[in-house]
Specification:
The structure is a single chain. The chain is α+β, with helices and mostly antiparallel strands. Strand 8 and strand 9 form a beta hairpin. The strands form 3 sheets. Strands 3, 4, 5, 10, 11, 12 and 13 form a 7-stranded mixed β-sheet that branches. Strands 6-7-8-9 form a 4-stranded antiparallel β-sheet. It is globular, with a radius of gyration of 31 Å. It contains 19 helices and 13 strands.
Amino acid sequence: MKNIAKLKTTLKGFTSTINRYPITILLFFLSAVFTSYNINTHDIDNISEILFALALGAAIYLVLQMMYERFCLGKRTRLVFGGIAILGAILYYLIVEFGVDNFSGEHALRTVVLLFILLVAFIWIPVIKSKYDFSESFMAVFKAFFIVLLYAGVLFLGISLIFMATDMLIIDVDSKAYSHVGNFIAYVYAPIHLLSLIPIYCGTSDKINEESDFKDSKDNKDSKDNKDYIKPSKFLEGLVSYIIIPITAIFTIILLLYIIMNITGDFWKDNLMEPLLVTYSITVIIVYLLASVIDNKVTDYFRKIFPKVLIPVVLFQTISSILKIGELGITSGRYYVIMFGVFATVSAIIFSIRPNHKSNIIAPILIALSLISILPPVDAFTISKRNQIERLTNVLEKNNMLINDKIVPNADISEEDRNIIISSVRYLGSMDYLKDVSWLQDYSTSYDFEKTFGFPQYGYSIKEPDIWRFYLTDRTPIDVSDYYFIVEVDLYSEGKENSFEIIPLGDSGYYIDLEPKDGIGDLIIRDNRQNEIIRYSFSGIFEHFTDRDTDRYSEISMNEAEFTAENDNAALGIVVKTVYLEIGEKDDFQNINAYVMVKLK
């Protein structure tokens, strides 16, 4: 009976969570549906844009719900907030789908930063002008995350073991079943469980009983003491106090000794220094927030001492990052490292001055700096793009390699200038900015670095292979009325190796065979006595496309895609879906995906 009562309580908790965050749960459920459909079909080309849009809408509603609970009244407000969240998801999708040419790494990173801002706001808003502290709200989310991570991991492992046992002992289980389970655990179970562990803080909405959708003095979490959610468990308290803080202290001593012993020379440009200091700063700030909720001598000393140690460490990190700009220019990653250095310095100063006061002020600082990093014209992407283009332009003009808006190859330049060209072009390419520079558009098509700039990118010359790729126009109808059988084949040959298994033509006693020769080779129809009925050489198809004078990357019509052969025994038709040929300095690669149609006479 106790177990049944406990189960009912849990289910009521999940139900109240859905009532509390209906739009968020709905959008996460839609994410699970779209992901599940894509796992089965792989038909959704813009799945990333869809999932980002749904995640953004879900996060917006989380923040608005926190605002409602803290400051607002009435059902209408919640309905308006729900509409805003859904509208935000729709507008985001329309913008990235139709407002940009290509959803690149820049757009994904901007979205991740925006989601991070919403996460910080979600933690901070409930404790604005409250008796609770940002560190306490952070502790509640921190605890909830790792509890759900543990439960979700055990749940996925348990279901996977059941599937494995069923697959081995009873019937075959589709391998996609594991992906579907992980998908619904991640998008449905985990969010509901995590949000069920977020306390309802005292706010304006607590003053009304009739209009609140989730008010229930017996069943709702708000009737419980929020300390149950904010207070760390004994295990977490011991972990932070007696393991994490001592390890952090020892690491701090080692780090400071290293800085003192190597403060001259190449120390400032040490490639390991920057990520090491950033990781250390993030760790100290997180541990500080956790330690602020734990009351003992160890955490008290940590709060008093470590912020003062963090200040010089962060300054070293920021100086190291600024010096790196002279060597590699400004990149979006370095921009964020410097921005974090500013945040960490300000936070360390605040923690040093007010070690036992509320840490709420760091949340708006972090939100403001994050917003600056994604809003033009001072965002990470605009500044880094402009800096790298100017840096590249200056070096090219200095070496007379940019004339009349065209790049002139020049191998006779200094090693330093070569490195600047290489690093800038790599960054612009990784961020999909090459097409935005008129004199780099040819390179963005060929990616032949040595031909474009006159020297190899990797310190040695690489001859780029010749590549041809053609594909049949989508939804092209194929007339199969003259044939008895149609089979789709996907064949490849790399060097002298190939992979093919004979394909029977129903119960006719005939089958499709492949005879490797100079690439993929010849396709042959044989009978059950291995007698050759008809053959067709794929080399003829590849020669046909490589002899074309048109673009090497293009769509082809049905007339261009169809090849036929016929004799007294059979008629053979081949309709090319895609054909890919790569001729390199040493090896060739061929691939053809086609429909093979056969008529036996």
